[in-house]
Amino acid sequence: QAQLVESGGGLVQPGGSLRLSCAASGLTFSIYAMSWYRQAPGKDRELVATINRGGSSNYADSAKDRFTISRDNAKNTVYMQMNSLKPDDTAVYYCHARFASVFFWGQGTQVTVSS
What DSSP letter does each residue of 6-55 carry, written as one string? Predict the structure, then answer.
């Protein structure tokens, strides 16, 4: 049974940092493109960052220069380091794995940026 479990969310002040983790199991992690999405209250789910099996990454404009996605295939884990956090970053962050037409979602982890 494929499963993605996010962790690392929480409450942080503006300008602070968090590192999200997504631990994968039940799949051949190294062949999957991994992404982080987020969904804020009243808004659609949006793609934040993607890292493919070769290690190349892409970011939403809102995340560029602040967020860094990475993966450790030996640990079956994808990370997202989030720096200089803003209130607009407040959302539930979801891990996503994709290989061709096969994809999986994590359950989400809440990130709240507030003073």
Answer: EE--EEE-TT--EEEEEEEESS-GGGSEEEEEEE-TTS--EEEEEE-TTS
